[in-house]
Amino acid sequence: MKNFEKFGVMIDCSRNAVPCVEGLKRFMDAIAKMGYNAVMLYTEDTYEVENEPYFGYRRGRYSTEELQEIDRYAASLGIELIPFIQTLAHLNQLKYWRAYRHKIFDIDDILLIDEPRTYELLENIFSTLSKTFSSRRVHLGMDEAHHVGLGKYLDLHGHTDRYALLMKHLNRVCEIAKKHGFTSTMMANDLFFNLSPGVFCSDEVRDFPPEIKNAVPEGCEMVHWDYFGMESSRYDAMLLSTKKLSKNIWFSGGAWTWNTFSPHNRYSMKRNEIALQSCLKNGVTQAFFTLWGDNGGECAYEAALPALMHAAAIARGLSEEEMKAEFSEITGERFDDFIDLDLPNYIFGENVPVESPYFQHSACNYCKTHLYDDPFMGTMSAALKAGDDTLLSVYASRLQKLAEKSERYGCLYETMSALCGVLSKKLLLAKKTRALYEAGDKQGLRALAENDYAETVRLLDEFYKAFRHQWYQINKTFGFEVQDARLGGLKRRLESCKERLLDYADGKISEIAELEEPLLPFKDTYVTSWGEMISSNIT
């Protein structure tokens, strides 16, 4: 890589979707040709750990043999496979098991510092990793542990300097890592900003007290992560601030694949171009791009290949023409065709700029919020206008044509085409239902139930089949039980609403309570949780 010593991709293997070995090999084949020389597998608990039978149990965890196979394959491509684990927060799935629930947690998903069982677990983790990966580098995570020391730790030990607590734990973890042969550690930088007055990801250059800077273990490199920034001054300031904590730092950007079925390549490219220019300007020569899978892991990691190609082109100094030609040679696909995988989220038009109010929070996940929008509640679709669904049938047709001609990535186009298909009926279903109910049009409601509701269920079945096929092409089977429950629940809810509309039209019931209650304004365009999408009740 021309301007970077290390240029990598991080793949989320912890949010329901655990990529299968063959899927990872295909993916690494592509990104190696783009120039990437590092891959991180983000595994909270989805890897086998010696003496910890419940660690990753029934989660599709990787066996030691599987990771060794992936490691060897990566090395054959010139890629360093780097373990990316969690050693402080983001270990909430372990709470499922009694073996961990009441023993190693402080508060939220944060490990209990100074608890012997916590460090017994970490010893077992590093002992296993040392035999699994050939890399002597490890990402320790340690991000977003906002409430560290404020739960069980507070009960046991009273109030403490939380900076000191963090540094004590960091040094102990680094000692364990070093003991097991890891000579280089990495950690996220956000706690250094969030544990003191200040704002993470601001355009203010920060300094830190000597007792904090001097307590950072030798060889521990800071990772500055930012997936949202649109101003170069913000990246410049944060990189300069982070350099005060560590001589060698990394930048971590996002190739957006989280909280949604569809990727956000356009959004990712806009931000990562600004970020990478800042890296070049500030002498940061280590970077990677994250493919998170928050709230279900629904988006295929391969769908982010255009954003990754674009980042590699900037790092290597390729022109747009050279980038697109190379992408076509590597993938067999036109770059502009692959970008069409973004379309299910562009319900207001494919040329809507990512700076527009429609993407005011970040990369809005309209395709998911509106798929799961309840037909009688209508919370997610309350602000939509008539005609907002007209583009989706056009997108469905376009993506289907791409699916038919693609030899390698047909299932990705097929899934997004089917998603656009069901959304073309589902998007305004709640608004149409409420309008007819408020007008007292029982015959209209009957027609809507017998036609639109029935067709939405049929199209949902088509999407389910395509999505299931895509999942099994690239992931292990574990985690799809969540998708079965979600999509199966959506189908049953549509059928239930249809039945109630017919009962109302036939006079069997006198009202539909959900439709009697008026809709209040709801302007949040970026709801991330499936539970929030389907109901304001407890899920």
Major β-sheet, in short?
Answer: 8 strands, parallel
Low-pLDDT parts are none
State the separation between the terminal residues, measured CA to CA: 47 Å
DSSP helix count?
A: 21
Q: Quick one: overall form? A: globular
Read across the widest sheet, the strand sequence of neighbours is 3-2-1-10-9-8-7-6
CA-atom Rg in angstroms: 24 Å
Helix content: 40-55%
Overall strand count: 10
Question: In terms of structural class, how would the helical and strand content be classed?
Answer: alpha/beta
Description:
It is built from 21 helices and ten strands. The protein is globular. It has helices spanning 21-34, 64-76, 98-101, 116-132, 152-157, 162-179, 190-194, 210-213, 232-243, 265-281, 305-316, 320-331, 335-338, 366-372, 390-405, 410-426, 429-438, 442-474, 480-505, 513-516, 530-534, and strands spanning 6-12, 38-42, 80-84, 105-107, 110-111, 137-139, 184-188, 220-225, 249-254, 286-291. By secondary structure, the chain is an alpha/beta fold. The chain starts with 5 loop residues before the first strand and ends in a 5-residue tail after the last helix. Helix content is 47%, strand content 9%.
